[in-house]
Amino acid sequence: MRKFGILFSVIILWPGLAISAPPPELASLAAGQNMVGSASVRLLFWRIFDATLWSKEKTFNWSQPFALTLTYTREFSAKSLAKTTAKEMARLGSDKAGLNEFRDAFRACIDDVIPGDRITALPVSDSEVQFFQNGKDRCTLERPQLKKDFFDIWLGEKSKFPNATAQLLGRETVHSFD
Fold this sequence. Notes:
This protein is of the alpha+beta class. Helix content is 34%, strand content 26%. The protein has a six-stranded antiparallel β-sheet. 30% of the residues are buried.
């Protein structure tokens, strides 16, 4: 009976354990290993991915090193992820010049994802973001203002998921359905 209780505890606590430990790709990077916040992003009834914001400090600041990890709970093609990312960047006001080239480069950078796959994005500068997939360094993409344009999808004031954004930023959540 004791073994069952331990196993049950591990199963119940496992998601929290997975989210609180920084992914291995951050071990030697400047982004640090402090979790600022985490959130599950849902669309209607389906959980799409779990997001975790990491920072050198325990709070988020655009001028300090940080990284964002998305752990997917559903299957998506790289083509779909790249298209959705570019579409959101455009919706949020990103300069449309060169956005198709960014979409194609991002598509080439990542593979299709299945449940449990992880993509971590780490800003290198205001115009460069480094991408990891399941701990493997995939590419560094460059575009004017890419840091702000890309991360605004999850961290910006006009995010489609304000409750998740508030949780990622370590703030009180707003009363809405994500």
